[in-house]
Amino acid sequence: MKQFTSVHDAGNLEALVAEALQLKANVNACAESGKGKTVGLLFLNPSLRTRMSTQRAAYNLGMNVMVVDLDKDSWQIEFEDGATMNSTKSEHIKEAAGVISQYCDIVGIRCFPGLVSRDKDYSEHVLNSFLKYCSKPLISLESATRHPLQSFADIITIAETKTTPKPKVVLTWAPHIKALPQAVPNSFAEWAVASGAEVVITQPEGYELHPDFTQGAKIEYNQDAALQGADYVYVKNWSSYRNYGDTPKVKGNWMLTSERLNQTNKAKIMHCLPLRRNVVLPDEIVDCSNSLIQQQAGNRVVAAQTVLKRMLETL
Ligand code: CP
């Protein structure tokens, strides 16, 4: 594996998930495979889970880890070709990526969208600059449009808990106090469809995701109708794709309640975290016995470990 930026880089998904579950059963099975190798984890945005789980995954493989908060610990990076660098950005991606490639055997980059220019964000100009100028295998630690390590962990979580071969998985929009990226729902929709689940996405008018990411999923604007018989309910807020980065006014209350969940097939509850309690989901649902939220976060380690292991095999 030379890059991991979306489900399209996963190859045979069933085999990748099986490998992850095998690794989870024996996390130290490949404890020497990364000996002498270094992964560099570069963050342009905050992170708790991605940062710590990928570090832990690398340690489980015997790797060295370097973590850098780009723009804070190092120089601000210019990504535009031909830019006259007479302002705050001191280093061009061409030099930075060349240098990082000499220090690291595998590179991970987190780069959120600006939520101002849809074209710029959906062109993935930051991620693609790293792919272009970095000569080492590259992992997306969440980009403008996707969060593949999160989605892989989510699919591992579904694989180890499902009681039917084709579970009904409902991705529901939830309220929030500010505009959030579409990366997690875009990515989860792609991975869930690829995993063979029956996928239903429910959202208010104006919050439709880019159709490229939702192919194979059913779109249902009525949340109650969507929840009928669901085996899994994945809860997430996102901002508008159509009115890019806006948060159009929503009719009705989209926060899940225990009463609404009664319509499901005792659905398991998922969320990628971080989560604002009693804004996105009420305490009673976050803390209920059907919540898989902690299990998902735990599986971030095995997801990252599987990807790093696959990359180490190609070095
Ligand atoms: N879910 C997730 O990616 O969490 P962090 O932003 O804390 O890494």
Précis, in short:
The protein is of the alpha/beta class and about 325 residues long. The protein contains twelve helices and twelve strands.
Layout of helices and strands:
Blueprint: E1 3-4, H1 13-25, E2 38-43, H2 49-60, E3 64-69, E4 77-78, E5 91-92, H3 93-103, E6 106-110, H4 118-122, H5 125-133, E7 138-140, H6 148-161, E8 168-173, H7 183-194, E9 198-202, H8 211-214, E10 218-219, H9 223-227, E11 232-236, H10 258-261, E12 268-270, H11 283-286, H12 293-312
Parallel strand pairs: 1-7, 2-3, 2-6, 4-5, 6-7, 8-9, 8-11, 9-10, 11-12
This protein binds phosphoric acid mono(formamide)ester.
Task: Spell out the key features of this protein.
12 helices, 12 strands, alpha/beta, 315 residues, 5-stranded parallel β-sheet
